[in-house]
Structure formats: C-alpha cells, structure tokens
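Dear H.,

Thanks for agreeing to be a second pair of eyes. The structure we're designing against is below in token form, covering all 386 positions.
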C-alpha cells in the first residue's frame, strides 16, 4: 500500500469510526456504564467494520493498517466511551504476538478468525499478588507428551468472559536463571480446565468484562507454544505490550479530548456576572493548558506508533507516551469537571464518567510507576558513562 493509498484508507476508516461513535456509541454509553452491561451489539458492529483486524495483514483477512492508524482509531473510540476500546485493545496484543512470533502454521490457523472477530482474544498475564512483576509469575505449564498441563490463576483480564483465545504466559522452567527465561507463551483457547472466574466491579471502565481466569489441569497442545520455542514468553510479551501502551496512550488522549471539548463548549455558554466564563482569565488559562497537554500527548503517541512500524523495540517511546498521556488525562478530566462546577459532578453529564475512567490508563498496561522505571533504565543505557 502506497503512502497516498494509506492516507485515503485511513481517512475512510476514521470517518466511519467517528460516525459509528456518534450514532451508536455515545447514545448507549451512559446506560452500559451505569448497569455495567457488556455492549454486545456495539462490539459485533466493530467486528463487521473490521476493527478486530486493524493491524493484521490483508493476507489473513485483516485491514493491514499501520500503528498510527491503529492509535487514531483508539482515540476516536475513546472519545465516545473508553470501555468500547477494551474488546479490541487486548485482542490486538494477542494478534500482534501471533503475527510477529507465530509460525506460519499458527498464523494461518488463528489470524483469519481473529481478524474478522469470529474469535476474540486477550492477554492472560497479570496474576494475583504479581502485578507488574512479570518475571515472577507463578502459573505453571508442565510438559506431558504432546501437551502441557497448566495450573494457576490470572487476574484483571479484559475479555476474560467474552474472549475465546488468549496469549497465555506460564512458567515452564522453575529453575531458570534469571526467572524470565523460564516463561513460555501459549496460544490458549478456552476449554476444559480453563474458565472465567469472578467478575470485578470497577470504579470506571465499566461495561467491558474484567475477570479472573482459572486454570485447573488445563491441557494445551505443544503445537500452541508461540513460535514453537519454550522460554521466549517474557520477551514476546514485553514486545507485544508496547502496542498495548500505544493504544492506552491513544485512549487517554481520546478521553482527555472529550473532556476538553465539553469544557470549552460549556465555558462559552455558561454566564456568571453577566458574561461567559470563557472570558475569565482563569478559565482561559485552564483551557490553554488542557489543550497544550492533549496536543503534546497526541504527538508523543503518534511518534511511538510510527516507530513501532519500523520493527524495532520502543520501550522508551511507548513508555513515555503512555506515562504522559495517562497523567494528563487525569489532570484534564479534573479540570473539565471544575469548569463545569456542580453540573460536572452529576451523572447528568459524562464528565464524571471521564474522571472515573481516567485512572484505568494510569494503572493499566504497566503502572506509571513501572513506566518511570522503564524510561529511566533506557535513558541510563543511552547515556551510560564509559
């Protein structure tokens, strides 16, 4: 696809997504959020639009688009409702991992159904008590002939109830030194011994399922070891999580933009002391800072997305984008509520939902405390004193 062709396809995709958000997502978001109900019809529509296969190559039935377009799609969706990004966000981590590290047989078997949304995926990584300590995960996979027997628990898993196929990380070598070398990635499909546990009741990001996954003597074929190589799971998932950090940064930009646009409209309509509050210097300063932060976060996100398409690791850039975009999202949503005053604190407007949704981006896909460690580690490597 040439540059001009990509630009035209991107315009068409984004126009379609914006219209979908306006006509379908925004009118339903408040009800799904309030009742914590899964938006089945909306997710099915996203599958029909091809959004489950944004970055999957066309030869496997996907759209074959770049990560910049991927980020823009997530931004547009999140402007309407953050939770609608969940089903395709974690799904895209799985498809990236298969697309980059899977064998030809694995790609041919899994990617066509994942591209159309016939099968929907997720990432089975985080564990109770483990959090960001990926190298310390405890789920075990023990070889038994042509299969592995998996036992353990995963927590905070998006798509855990609705998903079919997961990028599962499990320990295959308990004695590996360092421990990360004993972790293997599997393409794991639900079946006997692999079940969704309790559904988590969350502050925000409601409507999308976040659950515990339970593995009890679950058997997965050795043919489903990602890339047919044991001990590579840690490195595979660290790479795949960079795409997750790009989409989380884009989601943060989308939510912050929605809050800002609501605030700047309101500031021009709301009058105090005989004039719109937008004429007050304090409000103007707040709006200027909000817009500047969003612009910077968007540029950082698109920069990371563009670098991801080059094929190299982008720990530093993806970490910076995710860190900055998520932090300013929290700040901007709070400022938007302040500009709205008492109305922003009510459920009559979506401001309080933006504010409740913002912490998800700060915590998810590696907490911001971990992002700072990743960023610092990369910087120290770049600027090492010889």
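And this is the sequence the design step returned. I haven't edited it by hand at all.
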């Amino acid at each position: 696809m040439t540059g001009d062709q990509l630009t035209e396809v991107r315009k068409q995709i984004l126009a379609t997504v914006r219209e979908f958000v306006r006509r379908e997502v925004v009118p339903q978001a408040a009800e799904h959020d309030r009742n914590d109900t899964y938006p089945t019809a909306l997710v099915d529509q996203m599958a029909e639009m091809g959004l489950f296969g944004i970055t999957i190559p066309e030869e496997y039935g996907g759209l074959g688009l770049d990560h910049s377009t991927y980020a823009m799609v997530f931004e547009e969706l999140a402007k309407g409702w953050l939770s609608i990004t969940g089903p395709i966000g974690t799904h895209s981590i799985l498809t990236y991992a298969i697309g980059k590290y899977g064998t030809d047989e694995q790609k041919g078997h899994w990617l066509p159904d994942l591209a159309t949304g016939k099968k929907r995926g997720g990432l089975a990584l985080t564990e109770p008590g483990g959090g960001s300590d990926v190298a310390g995960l405890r789920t075990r996979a023990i070889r038994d002939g042509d299969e592995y027997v998996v036992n353990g628990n995963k927590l905070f898993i998006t798509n855990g109830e609705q998903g079919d196929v997961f990028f599962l990380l499990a320990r295959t070598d308990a004695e590996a030194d360092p421990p990360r070398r004993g972790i293997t990635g599997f393409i794991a499909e639900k079946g006997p011994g692999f079940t969704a546990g309790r559904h988590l009741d969350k502050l925000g990001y409601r409507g999308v399922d976040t659950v515990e996954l339970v593995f009890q003597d679950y058997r997965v074929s050795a043919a489903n070891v990602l890339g047919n190589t044991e001990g590579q799971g840690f490195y595979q998932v660290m790479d795949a999580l960079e795409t997750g950090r790009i989409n989380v940064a884009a989601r943060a930009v989308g939510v912050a933009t929605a809050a800002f646009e609501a605030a700047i409209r309101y500031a021009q309509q709301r009058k105090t002391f005989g004039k719109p509050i937008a004429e007050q210097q304090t409000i103007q300063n707040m709006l200027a800072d909000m817009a500047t932060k969003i612009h910077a976060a968007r540029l950082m996100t698109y920069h990371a997305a563009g670098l991801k398409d080059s094929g190299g690791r982008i720990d530093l850039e993806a970490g910076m984008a995710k860190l900055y975009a998520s932090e300013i999202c929290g700040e901007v949503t709070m400022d938007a509520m302040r500009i709205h005053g008492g109305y922003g604190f009510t459920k009559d407007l979506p401001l309080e939902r933006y504010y409740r949704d913002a912490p998800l981006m700060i915590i998810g896909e590696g907490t911001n405390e971990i992002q700072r460690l990743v960023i610092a580690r990369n910087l120290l490597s770049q600027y090492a004193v010889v």
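Two observations from my side: The first strand starts at residue 121 and ends at 124. The chain has ten helices and nine strands.

Warmly,
E.
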